[in-house]
Design brief:
The complex is a heterodimer of chains A (482) and B (486). Chain A has 482 residues and is α+β, with helices and mostly antiparallel strands. Chain A is built from 16 helices and 16 strands. In chain A, the strands form 4 sheets. A 9-stranded mixed beta sheet of chain A has the order 2-6-7-10-1-11-12-13-14. In chain A, a hairpin with a 6-residue loop joins strand 8 (129-132) and strand 9 (139-142). Chain B is an alpha/beta fold and 486 residues long. Chain B has a single domain (4-259, 396-481), classed as Amidase signature (AS) domain (Amidase signature (AS) enzymes), CATH 3.90.1300.10. Helices cover 38% and strands 14% of the residues of chain B. Chain B contains 16 helices and 13 strands. Chain B has helices spanning 9-17, 23-41, 49-64, 106-114, 156-163, 180-186, 220-230, 265-268, 274-289, 305-320, 339-350, 353-366, 372-392, 418-423, 429-434, 463-475; strands at 44-47, 75-79, 117-122, 142-143, 146-150, 169-174, 189-192, 212-217, 260-264, 293-297, 398-402, 438-445, 451-457. In chain B, strands 1-3-2-6-8-7-12-13-11-9-10 form an 11-stranded mixed beta sheet, sandwiched between helices. A two-stranded antiparallel sheet of chain B has the order 4-5. In chain B, a hairpin with a 2-residue loop joins strand 4 (142-143) and strand 5. The two termini of chain B are 19 Å apart. Classes of the chains: A alpha+beta (482), B alpha/beta (486). The interface between A and B is large, with 29 and 44 residues.
């Protein structure tokens, strides 16, 4: 039987506020354990939470970017469970009344753009971390992360494949990064993903029994875990078995998912409204103020690149997937107004250098203005495109700019007609056999002659000029008498 | 002149201002009094003589520099559920028997800013869960009027300290009657302010939506002075209400002629104890002579007050008390096998039976499938009770009713009968449910010579009206001046 996967994702995104969600402690990553803590986030007796307004503003921004309805009145609720990294043994979260609901974002799929519904976006606080001693049965608690503001973004079960899930994750992360409210780092855990997966016979509407997948801390793992789980569920059903509602952990070393706890063992979180925090009133003026500060979002930027810069949709998609990359592109185009050439260069040469990562881009030694300068030198014929690649590689290594590298290494393109003519005549003289064959009709040999010219000029010959002169000389060729 | 420890805060303030005694002398007098009677009363969990003398010396410097405020140099007892930096704050519980907070509660900060003198941390029912101060891990507080009797609870230590002159004033907290009931049992004046009037930051939570800090004192004047100190917005407490508060001393010695007091049928219909009935009649007579009119009225949902309270308060408590797990501070079981076992043993050893009972009640009420039937329904009852009061206040300026159904009962009498114990709070709980200010003041004595108090309830933020009524009542009676024969 044909099965169709049904996937919904729950994303936790750490907000880039200076201070924690309910106290004034720093959110900076990497401090000594428990240095960024105070009685409030340590869960001391008697302390009370006070909401960080910035965290609310960031949440509202995300809600607007995801076309959500913002609830004028929402409530914080306590999610009760015991774990040593949760000092109050409850997490301040939202339950019945989240900040925002009923939104959507668009993703690109093989069949074109697709809309994925957003069920809700709510605010909550992060937990701390346990550090386990390898030598004895002791664990230590680090509360630096405790109370860092998170938003949870829950999607509708609109996703139909691991590829779509990855596309959704990428789009969502791009929006967060564009809004500058989350750094989107999956490996460091500032952007986390859990998935709900079920399968159903293709063409049917009823949802199958779902499992919840956890512990997928990269885009690749999300895709692998989903694919494994979909295959597993189909295999169980085909073998006449039934899917058990449970939470499963992905193990990156085996690529498999394994049962963590069954539905019966699921926590009863005993949610109830947090009496320490008043109902949260989101002032419509705040919403309008946030709307006014929204930057151009990935989809809008992509459309503009296609419309105004005339680059292909695929290129526009790649360039806008990362805010950093899109800014790099725009700055380069501003200084070298040939969008297609800039786009080609970024998508091939630059991507190769930075291995396709934002982190690579921020540490890349070549600035947009340096790249623009290089591309302008290609445009005006100072260097050939091929030489430019060599120059670019060296720029990436040394941080030097293009003109000085070209000058130092004598890479200026030879466009002097007389000089090229002399070289070409020499080469035709030295290869009479090939010339005869060419003249007998094997015109493909033109490439051979171009190659010889390039070799003789160390690649500096202006390729179009070489072509032009070669063809003329061959047409008029008379072997030197003698 | 009476001994310094016997005087009220307003009297002492005058003596300090006139340099007839120093704050250190006043403090020494109170510390000596503690020395002589504490063994019998057991009002304190921790007495802090060094801190007190240091604070008194600071107060004297403020007085000498002309920086004194109305309560500078006045000795105060602080209930042991309010954090004082560097001093044990145990909440009357074994689970926090060694807990030393690294910060001051906002009210403690205000006490310090004013130059008051903290003489000790007062005994209380464990986590403020009780009506008799018998559930304290440190043992019960004894009623200064009769050592065989309970002092009331949960602020029994704070109240007994004031009644026995082991402190001039005290801070208590009131979740369902915990200031007013012991105040009535020990013959002193105590008020639970409007929810949100006094910061809860640093008050160890029992039931967050009901808890409120308030003062306990010898008379209405001292209550007014303390309200001036305590009321005010605190940005550290999101439930604290940003508003201006009046100078509560301006309500002193003001005529109450023409005021109307409401008498809820549902309360008086339940009254069986003849001492309480008599005291209520006598108090009514005094007030009528002062020009007050009484009206009968009905608060139909009061009967559900206790039931709803015992859903909401334990629900919040079950979550508030989850943090006491042996991981971070307080008691941790000595022997355990793994993390879960550590939690279980720590909490089994650290909490007493009443606290465990309420944690279990609350955990059950919040459980999946029961939430709507219990917690949500109780929240609705709460709204109905609040509306009842609102309607009542369209017909009267304040409500007049008993504080407790009986005078103080004997130690051990109800401790094994939770329901009887819970019913002790029948007249006080609805006030917390509605977030209203409520005051208990001495109204007379039982045939056996035990104090009996009565309660006045005002609309939100009308504490001034309660001060005005109490002040006039006390100007024409002397019950508040009686001292137990210690």
């Amino acid at each position: 039987m044909e099965y169709e996967p049904v996937i919904g994702l729950e994303i936790h995104a750490q907000l880039l506020t200076e201070s924690k969600a309910f106290c004034g402690c720093s959110t900076r990553f990497g401090a000594e354990p428990n240095m960024n803590t105070c009685p409030v986030c340590q869960g001391m007796p008697g302390v009370l939470p006070v909401l960080n307004r910035k965290a609310l503003e960031y949440t509202v921004k995300m809600a607007l970017a995801c076309h959500c309805t913002i609830n004028e009145l929402s409530r914080f609720a306590r999610k009760n469970y015991y774990y040593p990294d949760l000092p109050k043994n409850y997490q301040i979260s939202q339950y019945e009344l989240p900040v925002a609901e009923h939104g959507w974002i668009e993703i690109d799929t093989a069949d074109g753009r697709k809309r994925i519904g957003i069920t809700r976006i709510h605010m909550e606080e992060d937990a701390g971390k346990l550090i386990h001693d390898d030598t004895k049965p002791v664990s230590y608690v680090d509360l630096n992360r405790t109370g860092v503001p998170l938003i949870e973004i829950v999607s509708e079960p609109d996703i139909r494949s691991p590829e779509e899930a990855a596309a959704y994750l990428r789009s969502l992360r791009a929006i967060l990064v564009y809004l500058e409210i989350c750094d989107g780092n999956m490996e460091e855990g500032s952007f986390r993903c859990d998935a709900n997966v079920s399968v159903r016979p293709a063409g049917t509407q009823e949802l199958g029994v779902k499992t919840e997948l956890k512990n997928m801390n990269s885009f690749r793992y999300v895709q692998r875990a989903l694919q494994y789980e979909i295959d597993r569920q189909i295999e169980v059903l085909n073998g006449g078995g039934r899917i058990v509602q449970e939470t499963r952990l992905f193990d990156p070393s085996t690529g498999m998912t394994a049962s963590m706890r069954s539905k019966e063992m699921a926590h009863d979180y005993r949610y109830f409204p947090d009496p320490d925090l008043l109902p949260l009133r989101v002032d419509p003026q705040l919403v309008e103020r946030m709307r006014a500060t929204l930057p151009e979002l990935p989809d809008q930027k992509k459309d503009r690149f296609i419309r105004e810069l005339g680059i292909p949709p695929y290129d526009a998609g790649v360039l806008t997937a990362s805010r950093e990359l899109s800014l790099y592109f725009e700055e380069t185009v501003r200084l070298c107004p040939n969008p297609k050439a800039v786009s080609n260069w970024i998508m091939t040469e630059l991507m190769r250098q930075i291995k396709g990562e934002d982190a690579g881009l921020s540490s890349c030694l070549v600035t947009p203005s340096q790249l623009a300068e290089l591309l302008c030198l290609v445009e005006d014929g100072t260097v050939s495109g091929k030489i430019a690649k060599t120059v670019f590689d060296e720029m990436c290594e040394s941080g030097k700019d293009a003109p000085s590298i070209i000058k130092e290494r004598g890479l200026v393109q030879v466009s002097d007609r007389d000089a090229l003519l002399a070289v070409i005549k020499d080469i035709l003289e030295q290869n009479p056999r090939e010339v005869s064959k060419y003249l007998e009709g094997k015109t493909k040999l033109l490439g051979f002659f171009v190659g010889q010219v390039m070799k003789a000029t160390k690649g500096k010959a202006n390729p179009s000029l070489v072509n032009e002169i070669l063809q003329a000389e061959l047409a008029a060729w008379r072997p030197r008498s003698g | 002149m009476p001994d310094l420890y016997e005087m009220s805060a307003s009297q002492l303030a005058e003596i300090l201002r006139d340099k007839k005694a120093s704050a250190v002398e006043v403090t020494r007098s109170v510390l000596a009094r503690i020395e002589s009677v504490e063994e019998k009363v057991r009002a304190y969990i921790t007495v802090t003589p060094d801190l007190a003398l240091e604070m008194a010396a600071d107060a004297d410097r403020m007085l000498a520099a002309g920086e004194a405020q109305p309560l500078t140099g006045i000795p105060i007892a602080v209930k042991d559920n309010m954090c004082v930096r560097g001093f044990k704050t145990t909440c009357g519980s074994r689970i926090l028997h060694n807990y030393v907070p690294p910060y001051d509660a906002t009210v403690v900060q205000r006490i310090k800013n004013q130059g008051m003198v903290i003489v000790g941390k007062a005994n209380m029912d464990e986590f403020a869960m009780g009506s008799s101060t018998e559930t304290s891990w440190w043992g019960p507080t004894h009623n200064p009027w009769d050592f065989n009797m309970i002092a009331g609870g949960s602020s029994g230590g704070s109240v007994a300290a004031v009644a026995a002159s082991e402190a001039v004033v005290a801070l208590g907290s009131d979740t369902g009657g915990s200031i007013r009931l012991p105040a009535a049992f020990c013959g002193v004046t105590g008020i639970k302010p409007t929810y949100g009037a006094v910061s809860r930051y640093g008050l160890v939570a029992y039931a967050s939506s009901l808890d409120q800090i308030g003062p306990i004192a010898r008379d209405a004047t001292d209550i007014a002075l303390m309200l001036n100190l305590l009321c005010g917005h605190d940005p550290l407490d999101s439930t604290s209400v940003p508003r201006e508060y009046p100078d509560f001393t301006t309500f002193m010695n003001k005529s109450i002629r023409g005021m109307t007091l409401g008498m809820p049928r549902e309360f008086f219909g339940k009254l069986e104890n003849h001492d309480v009935v008599r005291v209520m009649e006598e108090a009514r007579k005094v007030l009528e002579d002062l020009g007050v009119t009484f009206v009968d009225l009905s608060l139909p949902h009061l009967d559900y007050g206790i039931a709803a309270y015992y859903i909401i308060a334990p629900s919040e408590a079950s979550s508030n008390l989850a943090r006491y797990d042996g991981v971070k501070y307080g008691h941790r079981a000595e022997k355990y096998d793994g993390m879960i076992d550590m939690y279980c043993r720590t909490r089994a050893e650290g909490f007493g039976p009443e606290v465990k009972r309420r944690i279990m009640l609350g955990t059950y009420a919040l459980s999946s499938g029961y939430y709507d039937a219990y917690y949500l329904k109780a929240a609705k009852v709460r709204t109905l009770i609040t509306e009842d009061f609102k309607r009542a206040f369209s017909r009267c300026d304040a409500i007049f009713c008993p504080t407790g159904p009986t005078p103080a009962f004997a130690i051990g009498e109800k401790i094994d009968d939770p329901i009887q114990m819970y019913l002790t709070d029948v007249f006080t709980i609805p006030v917390n449910m509605a977030g209203l200010p409520g005051m208990s003041l001495p109204g007379g004595f039982s045939d056996q010579g035990l104090p009996v108090g009565f309660q006045l309830i005002a609309p939100h933020f009308e504490e001034g009206r309660l001060v005005q009524l109490a002040s006039e009542f006390q100007n024409h009676t002397d019950y508040h001046l009686k001292r137990p024969p210690l």
